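Human: Not sure, check this?
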Amino acid sequence: MLYEIDPEGDYEEYDEELRRYVWERDNGLCIMCNRKGQECHHIVFRSRTKVGTHKPNNLGTLCRDCHDVQHSDEPIENEVLFKKVKANEVRFRKELI
């Protein structure tokens, strides 16, 4: 499927197309544990900061267990998640060509 999604773009709407793009980019797998993903997660939380965005590079697919971890008192470092998202983005863009 071709998307009109810019990986660097910031989207006003957190809509189904954006969530589907992230899910397909991540192969429907949790970027932390590689199990089936169910959640589209904001790496930098919009609810806790003014800097969290709807940019695809700030979103990642997580399973429910890993999503719970990210919202706990001991989340995985954001830099780890950003690296996984970037690697998935590079692979996904190559597949679209």
In short: Residues 16-96 form one domain. The longest helix spans residues 78-96. DSSP finds three helices and two strands in the chain. Helices lie at 16-25, 64-70, 78-96.
